[in-house]
Amino acid sequence: MKIEAVTLREIHMPLVHFFETSFGRVHSRRILLVSIDADGVRGWGECVAGEDPFYSPEWIETAWPTIKHYLAPALLQGEVQSGRDCATLFARVRSHHMAKAALENAVWDAEARQQQQPLWKLLGGSRREIACGVSIGIQDSPEQLLEKIETELAAGYRRIKVKVKPGWDLNVLEKIRARWADILLSVDANSSYTLDQVEHLRKFDAFKLLMIEQPLWNDEIYLHARLQKAIQTAICLDESIRHSRDADFALEIGACRIINIKVGRVGGFTEAKKVHDVAQRHGVPVWCGGMLESGVGRGHNIALSTLEGFRLPGDVSASKRYWKEDIIEPEVEVRADGTIPISDAPGTGYQIREDLVKKLTVREETFRARDI
Ligand code: OSB
Ligand code: MG
Question: What average pLDDT is seen over the chain?
Answer without folding.
Answer: 97
